[in-house]
Amino acid sequence: MTHNGTTNTGFNYLTTDNNIVGFAHDPRNGDILFCDLIEGRIKRLIRTVASTNLIPATLSDTGVFLDTPSLTPNPGVIGYRLNLPFWSDHAIKTRWFSIPDTNTTITFRPEDPWTFPTGMVWIKHFELETTSGVPASARRIETRILVKNGDPAGGYGVTYRWGTSTNEAVLVPDTGLYEPILIDDGGTIRTQVWRYPSRAECLSCHQVGAGFALGFNTPQLNRTMNYNGLVTNQIAALGCSGFFTQCVENVVQLPRLVHATNTEYSVEYRVRSYLQANCANCHFPGGPIPGNFSARLKESLVDANLIDGLLNDELVDINNRVIVRGSVPHSMLHTRIATLDQNWRMPPLASMVLDTQNIALVASWINGEATQFQFYHEWASNHFGSATNSLAGRDTDADGDFAVNYLEYLTGTQPTNETDVWNGPQLALTNQSVAFQFIRPAR
Question: Where are the chain's structural domains?
Fold first, then answer.
């Protein structure tokens, strides 16, 4: 960190690690020691000399592109698209991947992270509109490359900065780089600080437990893709092209993330999609963050510990929780994504601009749909007077309609009225199309 005597003027990451809660000096030799809360270990900071001899100095030297100025990929470098990209300060992103060894395949999983072969490469190119809302003003910013290898950390990442050039990008130093960029935002000129990540910052997000290549998974890739005029499901195409051990069937049953503006889905599902895309790389069971909630879409709302979820730091007010139904000020998830204070901002890296659309979406959920949510014990108390009532058990059929209480809780039917039953999905014919209609959304 550099300091001018009053405040810090900048800092560079030398290395990163998660769950560090204390530091000390080794009295024998002065080495820096630190305590890892999750691993339960005392670690030592060791100086190493990073070798960059094998990392190409320019983007052209990597061999990713047949023609770098036009971003034309080499054969075997294949484009892909996500349902919901990670927030990157209004950046426009283009993605490719490659598996150089054609004898290796990806291990596909419907919900959990996929497993990738050694040598697989992902490329992500960033551009930024220098005049907001004017696509022609887009400027090339950086092109990142993530490489899977046999290292316990999963691999490594590097990035190439374009600067003012449209022909070549140059390797960013190991410590990363900040760059101020002028943006015309509706006639007002503002300075947007762009962060080119250090090598350590790349791996602080791209962790093995989270899947390493964070967007290369089922809920992100489950979408249609146009392959030179052939429009088909992206996952089905990858499977039948030999990238998986076999074709993937019934892709319509697979999970998918959705955009904040997609009103065909509930506000809750859109919020959960946002959390999966932006937070689940750290916040998941067994993950690197000692938090009590999971941002993964696969967890039910109850199992995710979002509603009334306990905090490691309540920030003075003991009423604060991860999400407090009907109270945005007490919902620390919203507070953390809605601040520019880098000491509290979440996600903590690679962003200097607020994601106002999703901040508003989370607030809308807290004040709206979330207020209708009940835990089972709350629901049971409302219907039976007490959650400990002998008729309130989850497996009890209190009204004799052949639906146990827990099913009635999930489907929103009355557990004390035998005529109020859930009939399941209804088959309907609309505009010559067959559709399944669910009267009540599952909890």
Answer: 2-44, 59-217, 262-373, 385-437
